[in-house]
Amino acid sequence: xxxxxxxxxxxxxxxxxxxxxxxxxxxxxxxxxxxxxxxxxxxxxxxxxxxxxxxxxxxxxxxxxxxxxxxxxxxxxxxxxxxxxxxxxxxxxxxxxxxxxxxxxxxxxxxxxxxxxxxxxxxxxxxxxxxxxxxxxxxxxxxxxxxxxxxxxxxxxxxxxxxxxxxxxxxxxxx
Length: 175
What we know:
By secondary structure, the protein is α/β, with parallel strands linked by helices. 29% of the residues lie in helices and 19% in strands. The protein is built from five helices and six strands; from the N terminus they run E-H-E-H-E-E-H-H-E-H-E. The chain has helices spanning 19-24, 44-53, 92-104, 107-112, 140-155, and strands at residues 2-5, 32-38, 58-62, 87-90, 129-135, 160-166. The protein is globular, with a radius of gyration of 19 Å.
């Protein structure tokens, strides 16, 4: 649960936030700061890193298209290895409702707004949890993670479906 923040002057969260933005975040009373931005102009990683750098606990990105977001990946641009906060993509419809309320709410309404984020892994009919891990073969950290995680994966004894995915980048101009 947390308080939500939004800056209309940096609505895409592509620019680094100022010290004023950092000081505005309130981590009191068991409320974690959430930050909402719109999608576009820079990578998901840059947005979330900018949010993390000012002390945000959860990053929320509003899709810029009216589309089904179920199969959209908030992909790594190759620099996301150090990100330590969770983030999520929400639909344009839901985001527009939330942002409209935030930009039109009074101070007292904003202070009383509490947002709850829930990261749920869906269950399959056979009561197994499925999860995916996306990485490139050039990422030593990803390879180390898989090696370190293997004993835990083995401990699940068939109760989960783990699917690793390799990401391949096209090198235009490479022979």
